[in-house]
Amino acid sequence: MSIRPITASDWPAIMAIQAQCYSELTPESLAVMQSKWQASPTTCLVIEQAKHIVAYALVHPWAQGDAPSLDTEIAYKESNSWHLHDMAISPAAQGMGLGKQLLKYVISQATQLTKHGIGLVAVQGAKDYWQQHGFLPAAPSITLKTALNTYPADACYLYLTLN
Question: Where does the record place the N-acetyltransferase domain (predicted)?
Fold first, then answer.
């Protein structure tokens, strides 16, 4: 198993995993997904096992207390915080601890780069999962309230403060 930055040839597998994992929302387009990668190519990652992509994480700089709208292309923004836009594990690889490994890797990278923290929008009932990993609800900004309207009704913004 290896965790590495996304390359152009990984996108068919990433899009397939996204389609398999998100049943309560319409999967984002390739252009939208790739905009996160283009905004921060070194922080967007895959897990590869036996030459197959089994998980991915799209992470990019974004302001604390805010999130981009769903299904919206983004551009690079300088920030002391990161946004974990999407992390998905192939159904065939779930239950192997890959999510924990990928999250640990992202947190380690952010800590090394002295980022203040990592925000995310939990969907599909994942709020408890993220809270078990130290993410806490945060007061939404005005722009975050607008962005959350583009997500399913159960969407919740969470933030992990890093020391």
Answer: 1-163
Average pLDDT over residues 127-149: 92
Q: Is 158 helix (H, G, I), strand (E, B) or coil?
A: strand
pLDDT computed for residue 54 by the predictor: 97
The set of residues, in sequence order, having a beta carbon less than 8 Å from that of 10 and lying 6+ positions away, is 46, 53, 56
CATH number at residue 104: 3.40.630.30
- The percentage of residues in the chain with a pLDDT greater than 90, rounded to a whole number, is 86
**pTM for the whole thing?**
0.94
Nearest to 147 by CA among 158, 139, 161, 157: 157
Contact 67, 157 (CB under 8 A): yes
Tell me if 139 sits within 8 A of 160, measured CB to CB. no
DSSP state of 4: E
Domain count, the chain: 1
Pull the structure tokens for residue 93: 């690889």
